């Protein structure tokens, strides 16, 4: 029996004044069919009241304790962007952002910078050297990964990203003595980058078109190469990841999962999600396990766009219809859920639990007929944590060990 975990990033939401969420009012016949044929519930990836990042949430859902294996978002983003890290490297997630001359953040995503412009600006950063420390930088749209390579570096530094607009870029501070040099290098690097990018021709062009210039990067999530048990060692299953964003690819690479690349899968609302569905079906017989992530609903949540989030969910339902025409209960257990909620009113992640449904031959089907935050609360799974997902699936596919004689 194969296992497919399908994660709609940022899926959950909070009811608006009409008591509706984008998921509840989206036209989603296939998601409702899966809920009707499966067993449903609510899930917090980490625990009740814990607001997860996509990184810690995916680790938990894959059965890894983030409190033990998580060493920062940076390395995961770097892996996902094709960078190999060496011992001593410090890696960061970065956003291309827009600041004014006083380093006040005007747009911490530089208008969700396009991929092509990001690649041009990437060349101004990648290859810099400061006080003997090499700077490596890769981008995928407004998102990027920064690696500092040199002597005497340490990942215990604070974020430069203030995580909101209209405040000053944070001065990077060391959290321990060993990190003083790293903090100093980063603060110098941001000033150098700002001076290189603020008058760059692509930014002059962007400002002429009324677009926010991408004139700085905002590092966050400093981390080092994590030591973690590979997925195959842990579960004796050959697995693959299908996704658009570097972070999830990076998690896959860190765990030794194959990353199935899909042309045009880019984590944005016009990502090639049907291409992801085709990639799954074309590779179905090659793997025991798949993790599929669709990112765009999370972006809509971050941008506070209710209608867009609803439309994206409807597009995903269409993608699921295609998948469900081509899989059957005799060979697949399918989990549909989210990694966290990204409520429109919050414009960031929240600890509101997400709906989850497990579909497959021997699940104890419940009375839930719709896939949303309210209906699934009445399902047979009740409430579970991310760490329970793989445990339940290993049991349903008769792969788990008996505890006791
Ligand atoms: O989209 C992502 O990469 C994260 O989920 C949110 O990061 P951001 O707030 O920096 O866009
Ligand atoms: Mg997420």
UniProtKB/TrEMBL annotation:
Pfam families: Metalloenzyme, PhosphMutase. Pathway: Carbohydrate degradation; glycolysis; pyruvate from D-glyceraldehyde 3-phosphate: step 3/5. Keywords: Glycolysis, Isomerase. Residues 1-395 form the Metalloenzyme domain. The keyword Transmembrane does not apply. It catalyses: (2R)-2-phosphoglycerate = (2R)-3-phosphoglycerate. One of its GO terms (molecular function) is metal ion binding. GO terms for biological process: glycolytic process. Its EC number is 5.4.2.12. The keyword rRNA-binding does not apply. It comes from the Archaea. Gene3D superfamilies: Alkaline Phosphatase, subunit A (3.40.720.10), Metalloenzyme domain (3.30.70.2130). Belongs to the BPG-independent phosphoglycerate mutase family. A-PGAM subfamily. Catalyzes the interconversion of 2-phosphoglycerate and 3-phosphoglycerate. This is 2,3-bisphosphoglycerate-independent phosphoglycerate mutase. It comes from Methanocaldococcus villosus KIN24-T80.
């Amino acid at each position: 029996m194969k296992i497919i975990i399908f994660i709609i990033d940022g899926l959950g939401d909070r009811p608006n004044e009409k008591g509706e969420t984008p998921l509840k009012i989206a036209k989603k016949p296939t998601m409702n069919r899966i809920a009707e044929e499966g067993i449903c519930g609510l899930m917090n990836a980490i625990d009740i009241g814990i607001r997860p990042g996509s990184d810690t949430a995916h680790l938990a859902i894959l059965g890894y304790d983030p409190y033990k294996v998580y060493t920062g978002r940076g390395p995961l983003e770097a892996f996902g962007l094709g960078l190999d890290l060496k011992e001593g490297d410090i890696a960061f997630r970065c956003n291309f952002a827009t600041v004014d001359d006083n380093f006040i953040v005007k747009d911490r995503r530089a208008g969700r910078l396009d991929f092509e412009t990001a690649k041009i600006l990437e060349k101004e950063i990648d290859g810099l050297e400061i006080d003997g420390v090499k700077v490596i930088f890769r981008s995928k749209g407004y998102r990027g990964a920064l690696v500092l390579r040199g002597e005497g570096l340490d990942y215990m530094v604070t974020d430069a990203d203030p995580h909101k607009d209209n405040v000053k870029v944070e001065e990077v501070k060391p959290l321990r003595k060993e990190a003083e040099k790293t903090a100093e290098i980063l603060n110098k690097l941001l000033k150098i980058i700002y001076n290189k990018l603020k008058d760059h021709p692509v930014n002059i062009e962007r400002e002429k078109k009324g677009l926010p210039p991408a004139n700085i990067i905002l590092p966050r999530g400093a981390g080092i190469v994590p030591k973690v048990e590979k997925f195959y060692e842990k579960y004796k299953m050959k697995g693959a990841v299908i996704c658009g964003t570097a972070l999830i690819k990076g998690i896959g690479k860190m765990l030794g999962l194959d990353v199935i690349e899909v042309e045009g899968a880019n984590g944005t609302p016009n990502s090639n999600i049907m291409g992801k569905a085709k990639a799954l079906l074309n590779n179905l017989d090659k793997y025991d396990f798949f993790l599929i992530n669709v990112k765009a609903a999370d972006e809509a949540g971050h941008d506070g766009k209710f209608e867009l989030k609803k439309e994206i969910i409807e597009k995903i339902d269409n993608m699921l219809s295609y998948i469900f025409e081509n899989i059957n209960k005799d060979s697949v257990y399918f989990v549909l859920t989210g990694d966290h909620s990204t409520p429109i009113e919050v414009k960031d992640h929240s600890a509101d639990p997400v709906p989850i449904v497990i579909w497959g031959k021997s699940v104890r089907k419940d009375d839930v007929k719709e896939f949303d935050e309210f209906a699934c609360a009445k399902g047979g799974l009740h409430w579970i944590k991310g760490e329970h997902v793989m445990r339940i699936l290993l049991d349903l596919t008769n792969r788990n060990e008996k505890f006791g004689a």
